């Protein structure tokens, strides 16, 4: 007698109503929060209190009813203004935006807060531009500011001598796990550029941008400066091979994979049931929040190994024991960030960025929900590879301090084209970040269709075995 196959019923979405079907998408309510005076103009910034924030291991994506998707019932969508912009959901509650969602900043009384853009980068060469709207500027009397050498003066905006009203910004890129309550570059998930002396920051360690003995950039980034970041990442085939090697070796550390690893992908039992074989896999539940529809998903959260990278100690009671071996995360070969200021090259502050595909990224909340266990069991949990939901990658991320404001270039045109990139931009070898949304829209259409096909298959299997 054949053994009866066990099928776990999937969680069915709640059917939408006619009112949901006829509701049009509109920009969320913008509530005036603060006015920033950068010495040249006043900038009105708003909060968005009627939206859920990404936190506690969950993230949110707008969705809408879709009669053509007869199993999942809903499809991903976006909110106006359409295109790349600062995220409605993926920012600190104390980070405020303008009406076009291209300016972001804090109140003059707030400390460091951060926000990420709405669309991430997974592979290829992309050029991101920021313009500093409020931050370091000239002194109010117009005289040039001569930098002091004391530690106190390094934290004071040149246009002010009072530390209580200093405004600063940091610019960079980061993964989804990077903290939004700290500046970009605070942890191992982000890479940042400081406005003071244009220093690079990673793992809370700042240093000059050098190539050989040459210091490329030691001037402050000031109001009006356009900062460009050329982000180069290897193709997904290369990244998948790195992830496959990590899975085969059951390690979260660098598997020491060569740049040209060949065309073989591991075939361990863990690998066969991971995203390597499954591809993009999403688990999204449609919910209503203040009468609006959103997908609720599991978010990627910081891992213990990456936390040890920032603070390499293990705490036993009141004792902190330094780690004997320092954790070395997997890196992406031929990846880099090249810095440009006002169209001029200022060196390569970062190379060999950390890998982001699982197991380098973890969804610990998803594990707890699928297999509840005691704290002891969780600590002893065997090597697990989480899903790739298509949202992993590096996102434009900026941080503001006491009234700092940054604008992102959301258009498909470059504000200030570096001479060495003109030909690559013309040929499409390097693309403006504003074009990334076109690819993102197509990706989400495909993911929606795949999700619906997979769930229809599971529905049939469940019905046949009842």
Protein described:
By secondary structure, this protein is α+β, with helices and mostly antiparallel strands. The protein has one domain (28-139, 157-464): Jelly Rolls, CATH 2.60.120.920. It has nine helices and 26 strands. Strands 6, 7, 9, 16, 21, 22, 23, 25 and 26 form a nine-stranded mixed β-sheet that branches. A seven-stranded antiparallel β-sheet has the order 5-8-24-10-11-12-13, with no helix packed on it. A four-stranded antiparallel β-sheet has the order 4-3-18-17. It is globular, with a radius of gyration of 23 Å. The model is unreliable at 139-161 and 257-266 (pLDDT under 50). One of its GO terms (cellular component) is Set1C/COMPASS complex.
How are the elements arranged and paired?
Blueprint: H1 18-22, E1 31-37, E2 42-47, E3 58-65, E4 74-76, E5 86-91, E6 96-97, E7 103-105, E8 113-117, E9 124-134, E10 168-174, E11 190-194, E12 200-202, E13 205-207, E14 209-211, E15 214-217, E16 226-233, H2 236-249, H3 269-272, H4 275-278, E17 285-289, E18 292-298, H5 304-310, E19 313-316, E20 319-322, E21 336-341, E22 344-345, E23 350-351, H6 364-370, H7 375-379, E24 395-401, E25 405-408, H8 422-427, E26 431-432, H9 436-464
């Amino acid at each position: 007698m054949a053994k009866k196959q066990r099928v776990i019923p999937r969680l069915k979405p709640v059917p939408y109503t006619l009112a949901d079907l006829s509701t049009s998408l509109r920009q969320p309510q913008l509530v005036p929060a603060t006015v920033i005076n950068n010495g040249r103009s006043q900038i009105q910034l708003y909060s968005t209190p009627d939206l859920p924030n990404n936190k506690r291991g969950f993230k949110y994506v707008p969705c809408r009813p879709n009669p053509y998707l007869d199993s999942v019932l809903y499809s991903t969508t976006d909110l106006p203004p359409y295109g790349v912009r600062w995220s409605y959901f993926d920012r600190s509650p104390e980070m405020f935006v303008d009406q076009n969602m291209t300016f972001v900043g804090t109140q003059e009384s707030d400390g460091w807060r951060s926000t990420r853009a709405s669309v991430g980068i997974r592979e290829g060469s992309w050029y991101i531009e920021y313009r500093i709207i409020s931050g370091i500027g000239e002194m109010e009397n117009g005289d040039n500011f001569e930098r002091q050498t004391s530690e106190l003066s390094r934290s004071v905006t040149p246009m002010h001598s009072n530390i209580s009203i200093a405004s600063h910004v940091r610019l960079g890129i980061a993964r989804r796990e990077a903290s939004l309550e700290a500046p970009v570059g605070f942890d191992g998930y982000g890479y940042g550029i400081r406005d003071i002396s244009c220093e690079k920051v990673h793992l809370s360690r700042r240093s000059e941008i050098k190539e050989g003995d040459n210091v490329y950039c030691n001037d402050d980034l000031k109001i009006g400066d356009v900062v460009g970041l050329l982000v180069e990442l290897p193709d997904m085939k290369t990244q998948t091979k790195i992830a496959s090697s990590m899975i085969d070796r059951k390690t979260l550390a660098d598997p020491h994979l060569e740049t040209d690893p060949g065309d073989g992908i591991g075939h361990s039992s863990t690998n066969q049931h991971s995203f390597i074989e499954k591809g993009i896999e999403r688990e999204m539940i449609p919910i209503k929040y203040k009468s609006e529809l959103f997908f609720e998903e599991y978010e990627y959260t910081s891992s213990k190994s990456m936390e040890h990278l920032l603070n390499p100690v293990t705490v036993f009671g009141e004792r902190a024991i330094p780690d004997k071996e320092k954790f070395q995360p997997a890196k992406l070969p031929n990846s880099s960030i090249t810095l440009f200021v006002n169209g001029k090259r200022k060196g390569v502050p970062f190379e060999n960025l950390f890998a982001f595909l699982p197991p380098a990224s973890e969804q610990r909340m998803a594990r707890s929900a699928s297999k509840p266990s005691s704290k002891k069991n969780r600590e002893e949990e065997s090597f697990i590879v989480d899903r790739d939901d298509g949202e992993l990658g590096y996102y434009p991320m900026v941080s503001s301090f006491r009234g700092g404001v940054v604008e992102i270039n959301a258009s498909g045109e470059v504000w200030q084209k570096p001479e060495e990139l003109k030909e690559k931009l013309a040929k499409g070898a390097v693309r403006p970040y504003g074009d990334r949304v076109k690819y993102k829209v197509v990706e989400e259409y495909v993911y929606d269709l795949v999700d619906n096909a997979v769930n229809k298959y599971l529905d049939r299997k469940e019905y046949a075995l009842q």
